[in-house]
Amino acid sequence: MERVGARAGSASALVVLESVPALRSTTNPYIHQLVDAIATRADVELFSWRRALVGRFDVFHVHWPELLSRGSGPLKTFGKQLLTWVFQTRIALQRKPVVRTAHNVAPHESGSRFERRLLARWDSLTTAWVTLNEQTPLPPGAHRVVVPHGHYTDYYAHLPQSEPTPGRIAAIGQIRGYKGTGDLVRVFRELDVPDARLIVAGAARTAALRDELIALAGPDTRISLEFGFVDDDRLVEIVTSSSLIALPYAAMHNSGALILALSLRRPVLAPRNDVTDALAAEVGEEWVRRYDQMLTADVLADAVRAGVPEGAPDLSARGWEEAGRAHVALFEQICLKELSR
Question: Do 66 and 123 lie in a common domain?
Fold first, then answer.
């Protein structure tokens, strides 16, 4: 994909360079929907190093900036870090506006000292920030626009959905250390609920995490582990056939898996904090079940016994048309120099 947008090819159209490369079936659905939403009002270029270094764009929109400087090995990582430094220098010299979406409070995995310097430089180059909630901390004096994480209701509407199975719990998404999947498996093994089942589905970030989950599950036949990429059909089947989606993250902030579960009308279990409290108040308390301090068998039992609420969570504030409009309004504002760096 080269350029997408209702006005693609127009010399006068606003050109937004996104930090994500060509979209594939494995690309985060949030990115798919966001690119489509922005492209109804501006031209969108998807990332390549050639476009970044010599291409024309008006504003750079960056997600997860640490990914720009990480490669599959030490040599590729060093090369991407050098390219990132050159790209940042171009942005600084040409005074290109940078909009940063703060998906996380900090990268989920720590990087090298040079990577940290690159991230600090991105902070200094950022003109404005998009946050997915009001609670995301930003540098002092930063310009913030809150655009809530959009829903997935329309994205998965064409796929068949299942009836919820009482007692079935699911954990979905890439398996990473901070997500507490091991704690969930450990606690589930203590669960004394008739017909309880647990399915963990997603690619393990490391072989060590995969091996840990296999060892924790042990001989418990109530636990199913599906390691690897989960395609859309299987994902929808797993979520909708479950009566609870468990997300016992050590540090819950923004979660696409949580919004996905709500989009498919399944309740979630998550730790209590300012973000999950605000989300529960927005969509309905019965859809976001929270616990304090640590996950226990009693907490898990109460959440799964509650079943699936009637109706649907209120996701009316999370439409993609409004998200696209808000992003482009911000891009146009900073390109007209209404904000100063």
Answer: yes
